[in-house]
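Need a sequence for this fold. Nothing fancy.
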């Protein structure tokens, strides 16, 4: 599922294009305040936000993976080991051809 991430005012949920509305942010803007409440209540549900935040940084993926795993009841894993796996996976994805069918 691919969504257009360049939506919203950009104060609470950063946009890929870096745009921020001149609305004054959550303190005075109603739309931004709603974003802030949504983010505070359910940060886990904002997958697009998470993907943007972590991007292609294996260390962030490893840290987040560990955090979620522990929250779900799994044991905390060695983060350096996870970083190795995530970094290699990201690198493999980067070097993959656009389509393998051609
Ligand atoms: Zn706003």
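Here you go.
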């Amino acid at each position: 599922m691919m969504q257009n991430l360049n939506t919203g005012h950009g104060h609470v949920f950063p946009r890929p294009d870096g745009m921020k509305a001149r609305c004054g942010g959550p303190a005075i803007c109603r739309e931004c305040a709603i974003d802030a409440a949504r983010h505070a209540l359910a940060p886990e549900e904002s997958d697009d936000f998470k993907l943007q935040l972590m991007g292609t940084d294996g260390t962030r993926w490893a840290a987040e993976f560990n955090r979620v795993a522990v929250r779900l009841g799994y044991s905390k894993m060695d983060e350096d080991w996870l970083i190795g796996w995530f970094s290699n996976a990201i690198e493999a994805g980067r070097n993959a051809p656009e389509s393998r069918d051609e």
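For context: The radius of gyration is 17 Å.
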